[in-house]
Amino acid sequence: MVERAVVVGAGLIGTSIALALGRGGVEVELADRDPATLRLACELGAGRPLGSVPGSGPADVAVIAAPPRAVPAVLLDAQKNGFAHVYTDVASVKESMIAEADALGCDLSSYVPGHPMGGSERQGPGAARADLFLGRSWALCPTTRTDPGALETVTRLAEMCGADPLVLDAAAHDRAVALVSHAPHVASAAVAARLRGGDDAALALAGQGVRDVTRIAGGDPGMWLEILGHNAAPVAAVLEEIAADLAAAAAALRAAEARDVTDLLERGVAGRARIPGKHGAERTPDYAVLAVVIPDEPGSLGRLFAAAADAGVNVEDVRIDHSPGLPLGVAQLSVAQGSEDRLARALGESGWSVHP
Ligand SMILES: NC(=O)c1ccc[n+]([C@@H]2O[C@H](COP(=O)([O-])OP(=O)(O)OC[C@H]3O[C@@H](n4cnc5c(N)ncnc54)[C@H](O)[C@@H]3O)[C@@H](O)[C@H]2O)c1
Ligand SMILES: O=C(O)C(=O)C[C@]1(C(=O)O)C=C[C@@H](O)C=C1
Questions:
Q1: Is 0.90 surpassed by the pTM of this model?
Q2: From the CA of 114, how far away is ligand 2's center (Å)?
Q3: What's the mean pLDDT in 38-65?
Q4: H or E element, residue 138
Q5: For residue 120, which atom of ligand 1 is closest to its CA?
Q6: What are 259-294's pLDDT values in tens digits?
Q7: Is the distance from CB of 8 to CB of 121 less than 8 angstroms?
Q8: pLDDT at 270
Q9: What pLDDT sits at residue 323?
Q10: In what residue span(s) does the Prephenate/arogenate dehydrogenase domain sit (predicted)?
């Protein structure tokens, strides 16, 4: 049902979708308003430039993966040019996208508004990965005018990316993501903003806790301003509740009544327990992860990769946890299941400290 796809906007999300579809045998054509971005996405194997094979006709589906402000006009242009039979977008807000698309005169019958709940604080095709959506929900918000066949096609597309499609109304979607994505982003930024004034000695003590809480604060402020502006009232409502909890906690501590914070901490534990799936799990269930201690000195990562290559094991992904000022860091190597024992043995024999 999805054999050919067009992706307009070859950034983080567009290229990740293209890579995932390509792995499933889909022929992907890409477009981006920035030629360098398009070239990089193509070089990464995400697809070929749109229009490079003349006369190929409309694709099964076109994915509009541009920033929210651009989505309605890009959708209209794509439909006018007949890029595909079915269209979807990935913007993080849905009600305003549908209203703007309608006002511009887009064909709503072939448009299935969508939002994959996988992403990253990074942008551009260089950060893209085929497994970005594995095990994540993918919201689909058909309108009363959406053709059921179009919904089926986009459902299939989400499944081919390894995601779980979830059909819901656009307003309900926007309220939900205010709670689980947009307000958390602002809260994370508020915590991270405090660090600007911290002295170097304080920041040298930064451990995994503050890294976890602030990772998403590294996202592009321009993109987030667009998202927040398109979902302002629902996000403001959640932020007001968070602010009230924080104000009450600060008042209790000022009054030397730390025990009064118990309720908030317990509600926090209960709230976190409601997040489905393995909390904090790596997004790479296909891979085994080996932790290797690396000295903080020039060339140590290069030597580690060379040792992995000598063992004949391809490193699929790497994450480095390192606190400035400490002489050691930890590299988390993701490798294909089944190759981790061989790699651990080989690295151990050449002197690396390996923690499976
Ligand atoms: N970043 C995330 O975690 C995340 C997750 C889910 C959904 N989204 C949504 O995905 C969309 C893309 O975000 P991203 O993180 O991939 O951003 P990105 O900046 O990595 O990619 C956006 C791409 O769109 C291109 N573009 C902009 N205007 C265009 C136009 N008029 N025509 C063609 N291309 C155009 C840009 O050049 C850029 O390459 C946004 O709507 C965002 O809300 C983001
Ligand atoms: O950075 C991540 O890990 C994300 O998944 C980002 C995240 C999210 O809040 O979940 C951010 C915005 C999107 O619209 C979807 C996903």
A1: no
A2: 14
A3: 95
A4: strand 137-140
A5: 3
A6: 999 999 999 999 999 998 744 444 445 688 898 889
A7: no
A8: 97
A9: 64
A10: 3-283
For the CA of 68, the nearest ligand:
1
Q: Counting ligands in written order, which one lies closest to the CA of residue 226?
A: 1
- Looking at residue 280, its pLDDT comes to 45
CB of 121 within 6 A of ligand 2: the answer is yes
What are 71-81's pLDDT values in tens digits? 999 999 999 99
Q: Is the dihedral of CA 310, 312, 313, 318 positive or negative?
A: positive
Instruction: Between 339 and 285, name the one with better pLDDT.
Output: 339
pLDDT above 70: residue 306? yes
**Residue 229 to residue 195: CA distance in whole angstroms:** 25
Ligand 2, residue 92: give the atom nearest the CA.
14
**Residue 70 Cα, ligand 1 centroid: separation in angstroms?**
9
The pair of structure tokens assigned to 103 is 């006002």
Pocket of ligand 1 (CB under 6 A): 8-14, 31-34, 37, 65-68, 70, 74, 90-92, 115-116, 119-120, 123-124, 227
For the CA of 116, the nearest ligand = 1
Q: Which pLDDT does position 2 carry in this prediction?
A: 96
Could you give the domains of the chain?
4-168 (3.40.50.720), 173-273 (1.10.3660.10), 287-355 (3.30.2130.10)
- Ligand 2 centroid to residue 118 C-alpha, Å: 5
For 198, other C-beta atoms within 10 Å of its C-beta total 13
For residue 5, the cross-strand partners are 28, 61
Tokens read off for 311 = 């063992």
- Distance between alpha carbon 154 and the CA centroid of its chain, in Å? 19
